Amino acid sequence: MNISIVMPVLNGETYIAEAIDSALAQTHPPFELLVVDNGSTDDTVAIASACPAPVRVLHETIPSASAARLKGAAEAKGDAIMFLDADDILGENVLEELAKVLADYPEAIAACEWKRYEIHDGEWQVRPATCTPRKAGQSALAAWLSGWYHPPCCVLWSRPAYEKSGGWDPACRQNDDGDIMMRALVAGVPLIRTTGGTSYYRRLPEGKLSLSGERFSEQGLSARLDVIERIEGLLENQGRKSRFGVPLRRAYAMIAHDAKGFPKMIARAQKGMRRNEPGPVELARDFIMRAKTKAGLAHDRYEFQGG
């Protein structure tokens, strides 16, 4: 299987060499690694340009991580695509393990284990993944809405899965990876977990910004609400919204919690919460999932279906 890696980057000179090295050192090497520069003013382009084949540097002038990923996806020639951020790291067998999954499920999305990579006591250290645990029996979409996720560094998209998602949205400035993943899950694309491989999702030091911008600014909160409202609308069009009342309400509640100091954003999130008051069946189902999870029955199944 030929794998294309698309790496969007803006002023990533500090970490990009490490990210590229981890990709080129794979037991299943990538067919190509497309670095898509989004207007860097540091030495990012020089560092990437000095890397050997199959690294190639592209340029995207639209200031958006999603626009950079779209540019790379349009140029990519591989059978499958990974969108690897320029500050994250792949364990040496990640592509091999992800490719095994897509060999068996050629229209799916493959995902492997991930860990946090962050500074503690002045040194970069591996830490546990930081996201909401998935409940026992919870679908991938419901879990994703509730705060469980896999970052792009541990996800490999088959071509059919990527096309079915509708692709990256350049207008989406926050939670763009959640947006494309949840659209794929709503469309029925299965998310399949590997049995091996680990990726490392870097948490930037305090004061450093990623390409996606500020999550807790008013603009960032509005963009996050845009994503949840879009997913709610897609589910409503399918006649399935009532099945996701609990996780949709939870998604809006998380944003309302983060929106302190922005009354308009709080009001918008609370309106979403009111639209998604769960019925008795959904509440009962959520209670059972919580009970099973508390009993230790929750685990990451190898296969996660979209709905």
From TrEMBL:
Domain Glycosyltransferase 2-like: 4-129
MF term (GO), any: transferase activity
Keywords: Transferase
A family per Pfam: Glycos_transf_2
Matches recorded under InterPro entries: Glyco_trans_2-like, Glycosyltransf_2, Nucleotide-diphossugar_trans
TM region positions: none
N-terminal signal peptide: none
Gene3D superfamilies: Spore Coat Polysaccharide Biosynthesis Protein SpsA, Chain A
Protein name: Glycosyltransferase
The species this protein was found in: Parapontixanthobacter aurantiacus
